Amino acid sequence: MAKKKTMKEMSFLDHLEELRWVLIRSTIAILIGGCVAYYYSDFIFDSIIFGPKDGNFVTYRFFCELAQKYDLDQSFCMTELPFELQNRTMEGQFAMLIWTSITVGFILAFPFILWELWKFISPALYEKEKRNARYFIFVSSLLFFLGVMFGYFVITPLSINFLANLTISKFVVNSIDIQSYIGLVKSTSLSTGLVFELPIVIYFLSRLGIVTPNFLRTYRKYSYVIILIIAAIVTPPDVISQMIVTIPLVILYELSIFISKFVTKKEELKNEA
């Protein structure tokens, strides 16, 4: 990214003031989304947050049918998970209601936050790069929402099923604190959504010359090992379940290499010209 020569330069304090308003507008958008989530809190908690606790959740049914068809591990064929949720603090449920609403508000406001960030950096871009704003917002939002859905429908139920059925002794009963359960659902979904932004991050890092395709290829095998370890932990001991988790993450990494190669080659041609 290069500055336009005709662009009027802003002082450091001007940049801070502009950034302050970006943060203020983004915060307002999150609060508005949080109010919407608060209004529909019954549906969000009963059908979405506590959905993976139900043995008839869509992911469990899918893996159960898959296991029965191919004679695999049938740990997902169940009617209910062997644990109950409990609230052990006076303000626990109220805190969970507020913070869950804010989290959902952030997810809903994510495209607007991207738009605000794009407007903040746009003065340092060429006109051609500015015209790509709609593509940046669309692709980044799409990757984020796909990541959130993948985290919620795949990683979260697999993790809950694994942890709920893990026992160290028959004398231990799982009575899970509500903050722990909701924290797992939120952190897994959000973190996966952010992980799916990897191609966008690689694009900008490649533009800045911080990341190169050779760097990504060099550490490819280490990345694959980490991905396989994660898949082995959160899935039952069969190859198909592990591949369902592994393949999207591998595709994401390979896509990042392709993007870095494309950007690096484009920058080299520009410098030669």
UniProtKB/TrEMBL annotation:
<feature type="transmembrane region" description="Helical">
    <location>
        <begin position="135"/>
        <end position="155"/>
    </location>
</feature>
<keyword id="KW-1133">Transmembrane helix</keyword>
<feature type="transmembrane region" description="Helical">
    <location>
        <begin position="94"/>
        <end position="115"/>
    </location>
</feature>
<feature type="transmembrane region" description="Helical">
    <location>
        <begin position="21"/>
        <end position="40"/>
    </location>
</feature>
<keyword id="KW-1003">Cell membrane</keyword>
<keyword id="KW-0811">Translocation</keyword>
<comment type="similarity">
    <text>Belongs to the TatC family.</text>
</comment>
<feature type="transmembrane region" description="Helical">
    <location>
        <begin position="222"/>
        <end position="237"/>
    </location>
</feature>
<keyword id="KW-0472">Membrane</keyword>
<comment type="subunit">
    <text>Forms a complex with TatA.</text>
</comment>
<comment type="function">
    <text>Part of the twin-arginine translocation (Tat) system that transports large folded proteins containing a characteristic twin-arginine motif in their signal peptide across membranes.</text>
</comment>
<dbReference type="InterPro" id="IPR002033">
    <property type="entry name" value="TatC"/>
</dbReference>
<keyword id="KW-0812">Transmembrane</keyword>
<keyword id="KW-0653">Protein transport</keyword>
<feature type="transmembrane region" description="Helical">
    <location>
        <begin position="190"/>
        <end position="210"/>
    </location>
</feature>
<dbReference type="Pfam" id="PF00902">
    <property type="entry name" value="TatC"/>
</dbReference>
<keyword id="KW-0813">Transport</keyword>
<protein>
    <recommendedName>
        <fullName>Sec-independent protein translocase protein TatC</fullName>
    </recommendedName>
</protein>
